[in-house]
Amino acid sequence: MTRRGGTIEIRVNGQTRTVPSGVSVEALLRELGIDSFARLAVEINREILPKDRYPGRELRSGDAVEVVQFVGGG
Q: What is the span of the domain harbouring residue 19?
């Protein structure tokens, strides 16, 4: 249940997390310590979210977020 000014529960990479109501995907990523989105993919409820929507997409109670960082190597 979402309350204005309160908190909501979401799942991030399979782990339940409590975040402020109205938090954006971009703010969540920064809270997770991710500052560069170049090698990153975010999926919300099994749908890939385009990077240009990170700032405006507010998370909702029950959202399932998967964050995948691509790492090069060789």
A: 7-69
